[in-house]
């Protein structure tokens, strides 16, 4: 009987240890998912945006204010339950009635993007960039809004649309975007780079005064907390 009790006691201790290790690992994963993008933002991306006079999308007080921690965790949980490979989920309820077919390619030399397909045939961001609106197509007049995924730069893979805009934070005013449509190439120069809340739909506004491209992706890289807006005009 004593041997049985001793063995049972050892099993209980082993179970408690394993349970504690699993709990710690889960806690560490939640912490990394929530705060690693903030830390990487401060170390790597804030300096790049600061040089372009862009405000940090995650204010510094967010990192240290305990009142925001629960909001960050809640936001992370919500984001995990939303399929952001479907462009429709970025701005549910918005968009234009389809009447123009968009199928063209863009290249961005500064971040090594070559002949990336842009289309409005569907909203699948894993197979191509998505033109969200269908009332204008470059190089014609109008604001053509293009959605694309981003992730942490170290996860970037050439040709993978799930990581295509991982280095978009490096773009600045004056950089070029090349549009190839029907065998002809058109040059667009970036005029502005801003960061907005994901609920800000003003960036979708149409403008027929000239030919514009608006690229929208998530920021900081690796999160969906904010939107990086890159606007270019045909030159």
UniProtKB/TrEMBL annotation:
What GO MF annotations does this protein's record show? hydrolase activity
User: Does the record bear Hydrolase in its keywords?
Assistant: yes
Q: Which domain of life is it from?
A: Bacteria
Listed transmembrane segments: 14-36
Q: Which keywords describe this protein according to UniProt?
A: Hydrolase, Membrane, Transmembrane, Transmembrane helix
Short name of any one Pfam family annotated for the protein: Sortase
Q: Which InterPro entries match?
A: Sortase (IPR005754), Sortase_dom-sf (IPR023365)
The entry's protein name is Sortase
Native organism: Candidatus Dojkabacteria bacterium
